[in-house]
């Protein structure tokens, strides 16, 4: 019976899409790692709680099959903030550091404008005794 569960999880991992824009944060990659850890011995792995394992598989299969997306369709392709799907993809991609650099805080911007040194080059003062 464990062999059947293992094959079902492997098939689910093959079907689960990977998002190359989310290096290190991709749900498909995370799922593959968890399945590999749970089934270390492959088909010979003994499962301590088969009901919980089956329930987890069914839940993941429903998410992968878009069951809830079809059951509860969205009226619009935006969120309450008005951000579109494309903008969300950009925000969630690995370009967050680039956006952080573009949107520096007011303090850093002022320090860069009025200082000959960048804020990173200025050593912090030691507390006086």
UniProtKB/TrEMBL annotation:
Q: Which domain of life is it from?
A: Eukaryota
Question: In its UniProt record, which GO terms are filed under biological process?
Answer: mitochondrial respiratory chain complex III assembly
State its location(s).
Mitochondrion matrix, Mitochondrion nucleoid
GO cellular component assignments:
mitochondrial nucleoid
- UniProt signal peptide: none
Keywords, sorted A to Z:
Mitochondrion, Mitochondrion nucleoid, Transit peptide
Q: What is its main location?
A: mitochondrion
The yes or no answer to whether the keyword Transit peptide is present is yes
Matching PANTHER family: UBIQUINOL-CYTOCHROME-C REDUCTASE COMPLEX ASSEMBLY FACTOR 2 (PTHR34260:SF1)
The name under which this protein is listed is Mitochondrial nucleoid factor 1
Q: Which organism is it from?
A: Lates calcarifer (Barramundi)
């Amino acid at each position: 019976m464990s062999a059947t569960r293992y094959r079902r999880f492997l098939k689910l991992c093959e079907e689960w899409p990977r998002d190359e824009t989310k290096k290190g944060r991709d749900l498909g990659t995370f799922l593959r790692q968890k399945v590999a850890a749970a089934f270390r011995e492959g088909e010979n792995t003994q499962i301590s709680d088969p009901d919980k394992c089956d329930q987890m598989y069914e839940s993941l299969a429903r998410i992968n099959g878009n069951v809830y997306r079809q059951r509860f369709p969205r009226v619009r392709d935006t969120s309450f903030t008005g951000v579109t799907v494309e903008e969300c993809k950009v925000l969630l991609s690995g370009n967050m550091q680039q956006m952080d650099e573009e949107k520096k805080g007011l303090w850093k911007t002022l320090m860069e404008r009025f200082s000959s040194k960048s804020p990173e080059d200025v050593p912090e003062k030691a507390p006086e005794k």
